[in-house]
User: Which sequence fits this backbone?
């Protein structure tokens, strides 16, 4: 018999290989299941419900197997994390469920690495321990592992739920809703027949009321330019449209400076002339010959 330390080291190696292999198989099964679900959706869309109900059982079985491999992967990780307890001659109670579940389920899987780890565990704990695990006489094998390894047809409720979920995922209208006789009667009552016209319950308007009525805004030619008001925002809760109007001129700085000039400048700017005596000449008329002669005489003095 090999020493206990060498067996434990071999178990550690096989557990690591089994974990990587289990993950790879789960990814592969998941990809295949997606393709199968897509084909089920096509069958439902084509109206082949009976064929879809039979084939969907393979998807259910594949999902159950994937869940079983996930549980066995967790047990392998547990044993790998507690390898110190594997050194003992007897199986530790904290490892008994994981060890017996692997011994019970490994022969029913196609994972060779997991089967080799099972052989090492049987070699480590003996044939009597392995026999108890295989027969599950003490009930230490996990119930979820035993349940997932049962070979039995899925219940019809589970099949229907699977088909509904596949149809919802791929947007297929299934199951097709059938109208009841009561709904058909209601539709007949709501739909008018071709021979009978729907009578209006309102009385026609008189001519006076029509004359008093305000014509709609849409009546008449529409303007080629339409301006939509801006949408309200947090900065401007009630926006308004401002149409362009005549410009409002504001006095500039240069105009303000002109107002502060001397009266003579203002007089010239307003078109008022001043004679040599300092009198204002109202109006911008051209002076005659006599006025010019007086101005020259004043200049000579």
Assistant:
């Amino acid at each position: 018999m090999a020493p206990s330390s060498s067996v434990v080291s071999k178990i550690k190696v096989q557990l690591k290989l089994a974990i990587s292999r289990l993950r790879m198989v789960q990814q592969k099964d998941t990809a295949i299941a997606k393709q199968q679900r897509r084909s089920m959706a096509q069958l439902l869309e084509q109206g082949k419900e009976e064929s879809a109900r039979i084939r969907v059982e393979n998807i259910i079985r594949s999902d159950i197997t994937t869940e079983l491999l996930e549980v066995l992967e967790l047990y392998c990780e547990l044993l790998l994390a507690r390898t110190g307890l594997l050194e003992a001659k007897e199986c530790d109670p904290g490892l008994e469920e994981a060890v017996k579940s692997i011994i019970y389920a490994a022969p029913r899987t196609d994972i060779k690495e997991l089967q080799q780890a099972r052989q090492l565990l049987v070699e480590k704990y003996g044939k009597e321990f392995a026999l108890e695990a295989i027969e599950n006489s003490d009930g230490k094998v996990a119930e979820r592992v035993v349940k997932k390894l049962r070979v039995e047809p899925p219940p019809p409720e589970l099949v229907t739920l699977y088909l509904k979920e596949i149809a919802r995922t791929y947007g297929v209208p299934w199951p097709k809703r059938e109208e009841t006789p009561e709904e058909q009667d209601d539709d007949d009552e709501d739909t008018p027949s071709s021979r009978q016209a729907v009578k209006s319950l309102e009385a026609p308007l008189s001519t006076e009321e029509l004359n008093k009525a305000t014509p709609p805004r849409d009546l008449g030619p529409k303007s080629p330019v339409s301006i939509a008001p801006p949408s309200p925002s947090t900065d401007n809760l009630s926006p308004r449209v401002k149409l362009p109007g005549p410009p409002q001129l504001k006095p500039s700085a240069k105009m303000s400076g002109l107002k502060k000039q001397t009266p003579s400048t203002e007089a010239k700017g307003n078109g008022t002339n001043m004679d040599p005596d300092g009198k204002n000449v109202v109006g911008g008329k051209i002076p005659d010959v006599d006025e010019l002669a007086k101005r020259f005489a004043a200049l000579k003095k």
